[in-house]
Amino acid sequence: MEFSLALPRQAVGIPMVRRALGDSLCSLGVTEECISDILLAVTEACANAVRHGGPANRYEVETSVGEGRCDVRIIDRGQGLVRVPEQYPPSDAENGRGLLIMQAVVDEISFDIAPGRGTVVHLRKRLDWDDDVLFSRDRVLAAV
Asked: pLDDT tens-digit profile of 17-61?
């Protein structure tokens, strides 16, 4: 399954991404915990695209689910990430935890950074399956 979304560089688009991706993964029988991890990472990446993706008016989210994993690319046309932080910022800092949160909840994260032309954040997570959902879906399909 693959889909892509082009969204305005406004926070209002983030819930749309969460809904489309979350509903898709749920319908496939992915566990709630796995979906939550993916949605947390995608939310952080989209928030960064909204905040830092200028001067472009939009950003894109490309999703591919297959072979037991979910791949999501968040693409913006901003100035590009300077560097990935190596540790969490001080507890009184208002920002700076997003990249580290993403690293904590997905299996792989990579960045394609072109200073002045944008950033692609690539998130990859192995999917965990909800056996009860898969069993119910297989029974319904077998009965048809």
From this structure: 999 999 999 999 999 999 999 999 999 999 999 998 888 899 999
pLDDT tens readout for residues 126-139: 999 998 776 555 55
Rounded to 5 degrees, φ, ψ at 85 are -65, 150
Q: Judge residue 137's burial from the number of C-beta atoms within 10 Å of its C-beta, 0-12 exposed, 13-18 middle, 19 or more buried.
A: middle
Residue pair 116/80 in contact (Cβ under 8 Å)? The answer is yes
Helices 32-52, 14-28: crossing angle, 10 deg rounding: 160
What is the side-by-side order of every strand in the sheet holding 69-76? Answer: 2-8, 58-66, 69-76, 118-126, 108-114
Strand partners, 61: 5, 74
* Residues with Cβ within 8 Å of residue 93, at least 6 apart in sequence: none
The tokens of 48 are what? 């960064």
Helix (H) and strand (E) counts in the chain: 4, 5
Confidence (pTM): 0.84
Do residues 122 and 77 touch, judged by C-beta distance below 8 A? no
